Amino acid sequence: MCPARILVADDHDVVRQGLRSLIQEQPQWKIIAEVKDGRGAVAKASELKPDIAILDISMPSLNGLDATKQILKLNTHTKILILSMHDSEQVIANVLGAGARGYILKADAGRDLVLGIQALLAGQTFFTQKAAQIVLDGFTGKRPTPTDGESSVLTAREREVLQLLAEGKINKEVAALLDLSTKTVATHRTNLMRKLSCHCVSELVRYAVRNHLVEA
Question: In this structure, which topology does domain 4-140 adopt according to CATH?
Answer without folding.
Answer: Rossmann fold (3.40.50)
